[in-house]
Amino acid sequence: MKTTTTVTKNQVLTLEIIDLSYEGLGVAKVDGYSLFVSNALPEEKVEAVVTKVGRKYGFAKTLKIIKKSPYRVENFEQKYVQTGIAPLIHLAYPQQLQFKQQQVINNLSKQGLDSGLVQEIIGADEQFHYRNKAQIPVRTVAGQATTGFFRSRSHDLVALDDYLIQDPQIDTLINQIRDLCREIGLKGYDELHNRGEIRHIMVRRAYFTGEMMVVLVVTSKKTKLLPQLLQQLAQKPEITSLYVNVNSKKTNVILGSRFELVAGQEYITDQILGHQFRISPQSFYQVNPVQTQKLYQLALEAAQLQGDELVVDAYCGIGTIGICLANQAREVVGIEVVEAAVHDAQTNAAINNVHNARFIQGKTETVLAQWAQEKQAVDVLIVDPPRKGLDASLIASIRALKPQRIVYISCNPATLARDLQLLEADYQAQKVTPVDMFPLTKHVESVIALERK
């Protein structure tokens, strides 16, 4: 595609950084042409090399900082920016929070919505080592199994021992498994030729109980040396649950469809707001346990339950939100498309002695469309959709169901603003509260309370 700029790949330029993109890249202009620059902050002047040129915009990499931002953090290793693990690590944390809050404000403003509804963002007490889950690729480098993370926009592995944002005990266990693979002679996966033995190591650690789950993603269960690794891992007292997952396909998808329990329990158990939750290998479970408590407390407050409401928890996963608020409602109905998650939700309701919650397997869009046709009554609707936001058909069903109140938990400010604009004819947003669930990254969640007009 023909470009409309004189900027060329590999060109070295001196650039003035005027803004941060939603991905946390510095924004510079060259005769009106936008360049997105890694490791660059607003008000900085940098020397950068152009790495990619597109028709409307390009990318560049900082070589030297000529003028520094007063908010630049310098005591970090470049690999955390290069891999995308911590793209905002070079920005002081108060300014990270400002950046994320501004993302929410900007997206609402673009849709003509009242950005004055945006409350002060709720920051995290811990900016490092907060993640309770890791999915780490294993590759063969210099003849031995190596773990790390991919360089941004590539599948080039950067070897790591400390992943910076993961629970340190997860990092320790990953390194131990890597070292065992080396001792035994197990090879990492070769994407190009679809060969090798160990593809990924997935580890979860329950924050409040300390229980750990390991899932080894392998190309074949018939690998001769695999039993040696499994035998040694099964003897580790810190591993509560040990699985093998087989993925023999040439694909970027991490997990295959087959899980086999090798040792220990089928699940690990953690807590949210005093409730216990069983977590299976495929369970969706928020990865920042401390911030999750704050997020869910905001959702409960936004629901304004009096005790006589029918609450629908859409995209309910393993039932965490619905179970946490069930004692404040007459009935909770959770809707979830994944069968295993529905089973987990039912189990979680039972172990928490929650008797007024039931869970339906199905697509939220389909179930609520049927409810709308049947004119079923819903008092409060809680939606926690994926990044793509709410489907247009679901918004139509919501407008037909006419719940008095909606609690929208968003992980994408752009789709949030789009959906609020589509609901604006019938619902008034009361307030929008951003929550930093993922420090050092570009991501921000928000809790929104909407009241029927």
Automatic annotation (TrEMBL):
It comes from the Bacteria. The keyword S-adenosyl-L-methionine applies. The active site is at C411. One of its GO terms (molecular function) is rRNA (uridine-C5-)-methyltransferase activity. Pfam families: TRAM, tRNA_U5-meth_tr. S-adenosyl-L-methionine binds at Q286, Y315, E336, D384. Keywords: Methyltransferase, S-adenosyl-L-methionine, Transferase. InterPro entries: MeTrfase_TrmA_AS, NA-bd_OB-fold, SAM-dependent_MTases_sf, TRAM_dom, U5_MeTrfase_fam. This is 23S rRNA (Uracil(1939)-C(5))-methyltransferase RlmD.
